Amino acid sequence: MLRLPKFRLHQPTALDEAAAVLAGEGDAARLVAGGTDLWPNLKRRHQKAEHVVSLGAVAGLRGIHSNGDLRLGAMATLTDVERHAAVRERFPALARAVGWISSPVLRNMGTLGGNVCLDTRCTYYNQNEEWRQAISYCMKAAGKVCWVAPSSPRCWAVNSADSAPMLVALGARVRLASTGGEREVPIAALYRDDGMEYLTKRRDEIVTEIVVPGTSDASSCRAAFFKLRRRGSIDFGVLSVAVALWMDGDVVRDANVVLGSIASLPSPADDVAAALVGQRLTAEVIRAAALKARSAATPMDNTDFDPRWRGQVTPAYVERTLRAAAALPPG
Ligand SMILES: Cc1cc2nc3c(=O)[nH]c(=O)nc-3n(C[C@H](O)[C@H](O)[C@H](O)COP(=O)(O)OP(=O)(O)OC[C@H]3O[C@@H](n4cnc5c(N)ncnc54)[C@H](O)[C@@H]3O)c2cc1C
Ligand code: SF4
């Protein structure tokens, strides 16, 4: 049986108390929300913590408010987000992305804030301690080499958080709080192309809210999400596609296409988006744009399925997702 290591559990009831523990304990402290990723990671000794700060009892982090912008509390569970009437009505693609995370039981515990901050994943890392010890570990935890790309100075572990590409495509922002105050950043800027230091936020900053802009643009927004995985019931994705298109009548005024589970951060496929702007969403325009996704997808051999195959099928899944956003049949 895998056991948790010993640590001191802090259960603050106010945000400033949680921030104070994080600031005081530095790298020895970690936050826990639903714990569906942190507890297994501590049990497998990927991550260490002498202090764990639970956000479970902190007041004011669970709400979902839909007045203009859609404001999602970081501690809202994935089930809360997926089922919320305003999310389903205004941003159905976001409800779909969240509804495809893991399984119903895990979505009841897992939170949106935890998903946004989810650790990156790799075949050589998401294993138990004995397995990793047998390969002398790897650069991401305790080792010196990256087994995926041994001559590489960096880690290529994959960002597999399903809400992330959709939130990036929708232009969401995250609110961060610390003892130094609060700030808001575009969620795209939260992510770094590095499997180890995958977030740009400081360790002492807490995600308090995710804000999806709901200007008049929202009504003209057509969005869609697709996730490829081995077992539809629970698996992490090996590719996801998030699309948000803002329309002027039947012409695309602006477009975001973001690929997930393929790199260390949600990856914008800007060439695909550029090929859609100013166009009507015909099957031919969509196919030509989707073909440009191949250059944005260079998966590594660190997750399920053959990486060359994942790269090759990316345009087909981008085309399928764009067709869904355009309300065309799958083709
Ligand atoms: C079998 C299994 C299958 C899974 N499948 C998927 C999947 O398909 N797609 C997917 O996206 N995820 C999947 N997950 C991962 C996980 O369940 C979800 O990502 C979930 O949303 C994580 O949320 P949590 O609240 O449990 O995070 P936690 O485990 O509590 O925390 C995760 C990380 O985020 C940090 N954190 C949490 N909240 C905050 C905050 N408010 N501010 C700053 N940092 C914070 C923690 O310190 C930790 O590093 C799976 C997990 C399991 C066990
Ligand atoms: S990509 Fe390399 S360094 Fe990163 S977790 Fe995998 S093997 Fe380790």
Please outline what is shown here.
The chain has 331 residues and is α+β, with helices and mostly antiparallel strands. It contains 12 helices and 12 strands.
SSE arrangement:
Blueprint: E1 8-10, H1 15-25, E2 29-32, H2 38-43, E3 51-54, E4 64-67, E5 69-73, H3 78-83, H4 85-90, H5 92-99, H6 104-109, H7 112-116, H8 129-134, H9 163-169, E6 173-178, E7 181-186, E8 206-212, E9 221-228, E10 239-248, E11 251-260, E12 267-268, H10 270-276, H11 283-291, H12 307-325
Parallel strand pairs: 1-3, 2-3
Antiparallel strand pairs: 4-5, 5-8, 6-7, 6-8, 9-10, 10-11, 11-12
Helix pairs in contact: 10-11, 11-12
The rough form would be described as globular
Bound molecules: flavin-adenine dinucleotide, iron/sulfur cluster
Cα(first) to Cα(last) distance is 48 Å
The multimeric state of the shown protein is: single chain
Helix content: 25-40%
Overall mean pLDDT stands at: 95
